[in-house]
Amino acid sequence: MSLLNVNQMLSKISFMDLFGIAGFVGIVGAGVSLVMVNKTRGKIGKQEYYVKAFEVLEQNKTAMDLIGPPITKFRVDLSDAQHNCFEPNFTLMKVPFRGTRRKGNLFVWADKHHSLNNWTIRRLEIIFDDIKDKKVIVYKNPNENETKE
Questions:
Q1: pLDDT at 129 over 50
Q2: Model pTM greater than 0.85?
Q3: How far apart are the C-alpha atoms of 29 and 141, rounded to whole Å?
Q4: N or C: which terminus of the chain has fewer CB atoms within 10 Å of its end residue's CB?
């Protein structure tokens, strides 16, 4: 097909047809994006650092007394770039949760060490929704120094 034929075909397409095609492409694109974001959010909950973080939290009796078991975990907001960073060897994430007594956010810092090929939890903090000006340090890796926060 020559360039002239393509131009003639395009000139016969109405504005409404183009508008409809653009709308269809936009809806399909948005749908695919939502599916991919949802799939990624679901995968985060299965990652080693996520599982370890909640294991450490559930072993902390003081924190669990404040929260009230059982803990309901909510999905990480991937659009919150200030509190969520997922790199190959470092993760910082903010996980919303709710217990029977309180709800809030668990902040997780984790590193992956190449030599061990596993994730190490560096720090866990909680900020409760009803006590926003205070944070509870649930865990701090004893091998970490204060300046590395």
A1: yes
A2: no
A3: 43
A4: N
